[in-house]
């Protein structure tokens, strides 16, 4: 693996990854690798990754970019230009892995297909993220994370129960399909590098990792597929609850605060019934065991909801915590930012960003040996590292970089 000049490193220090990514999935994968110490070189078009323009603006920049591109060295190239292709292939020689999320076939059109990449570095690990995968009848279809969530079955399950509303099926409020695919891609990169560098002597060839947004989401559906395959049942959306356990739902307190109560094991249900001062729930055959509670969940939720409505949210939370019942109010991001547990574990931390000043970043997941390293860098301006990377790794002199910029091949220094 290549040297990593970042101080203090991390478990992936020494790994260098080239990112040919845009929007969410591939950049999220490389962010995870970068958080764990890898050196990430991100290639974006001269106009910048589209995510730079997403969300609210502060000082002319999207705050999300600070996190999305942290621990990355950003260079700007027009990949449609042959000179840019040659630069990428030159960088590949110095990298252990490459992560991309173009539509299948697009990199081949640019002269950067797997054959060309492996010719530049035979032991390169290539992670390819796409909507439907690199083959199959849907491979050429356009897709974003939300499409993966729909085809993967999640959008159906996150909806309200059938017959309760005519509103569109509810989606998760973030690009979950993209992020899950990014996690799988990062895992695939690490697994392939382990095989390459540790399972063979001498080190073996690289690998191609194929991650589909649709398959990434589909893999999360727990028992839905085996239930359908053996019983013919199609799991239906259940709103705030879940079809396999009860009680587990959100209940509105007197002051309008929603509090989640997950008392779906028999011991927990006994604690809840005792706290509610309704011992008759424990004698009722409709609620004897999880299967019975699931079959009669509407009645059970109504009983718990009526009880919860007698408390303000804070008092309800305190009573449930005192009974050691898994529970919490529904957090907003403001609640997360102020939460003492997140703060104590540095999952919410203040970071100095040259584009924004002092701002909040989420911490690193997972922790390794208890470490929670601060970002080595925050998301920079477009082309901020073009000179340093191309001059340092490829030895391109300033006059050549100036010429390439004048010709529109690259963008330098923001």
UniProtKB/TrEMBL annotation:
Which keywords accompany this UniProt record?
Transferase
- From the UniProt record, which GO molecular function terms apply? CoA-transferase activity
Question: Record's superkingdom?
Answer: Bacteria
Q: What is this protein called?
A: CoA transferase
Any one Pfam family here would be CoA_transf_3
